[in-house]
Protein 1
Amino acid sequence: MTAETHSDRSERNAFGLDWLDVSLLGGGVLLLYYVVPLVSLFLSVPVGDVLSRMSDPTVVDSATTSLLSASVSTVLAALFGLPLAYWLARTDGPVAKVALAVAVLPLVLPPTVGGIVLLTVFGPG
């Protein structure tokens, strides 16, 4: 009888799966979570209707606003987030604690607040 080492036990969970199995299973479930509704949407609507709706000026404006907003957000997050993360990783003081609290504040706000702000700023009227 051989003794099982700690590293052998830590690679598998209670169900006998290792982290790669769990990751692939979780990724597959998430992929289905996103793909199945899109496939059912496109199968339930005729292709001509989808193409005519995609050329509607309101849809084009909405898509343009979404892409512009996502692009600006990504650039701003990279410009401010990377230096802030670097600084926070190397600093431990009261100013750093306040900066960290402000940095994680968007994580606790519901996405609806962001949507309302976007509609207020970029919406019609």
Protein 2
Amino acid sequence: SIYLFSDHLKALETFSLESILSHIYYFRCRDYIELLAQVYLLPDFLSEHSKVRLVVVDGIAFPFRHDFEDLSLRTRLLNGLAQQLIIIANDHRAAVVLTNQMTTRIGQRQSTLVPALGESWGHAATVRLIFHWDNSQRLRASEMCSLQLSLRMQMVLK
């Protein structure tokens, strides 16, 4: 319709790199204490910035991979973090994306890629995407997790 077209033209007038970057909020967390604190403060931030619909935690494993002698404490902190992020996603109608490093588990006959934080952490997500290379093609293996649905698909990304 004409109304939608004029709205698009108005949006294009202000569309620039600066306008895009001015709506991206970035918080650097150097260790697990800073990450836990930031997630604790996140609900207030999202209430003040009600247009935010995407929260990305890039490298969830990094703060938890070092300086943890007590693995049960690490597991409890990670599970609590996952629960908080699920509540935040639901309460603020925001998508939460976590990236997790992969590591190689070496067996007697073969090696396999596994999530750096372990398989149990991988089940905290409702959708799990694993990207990998196969020869020169980048592939994505997708695994959707829920109580009633388990679906795997593979597709080529160009």
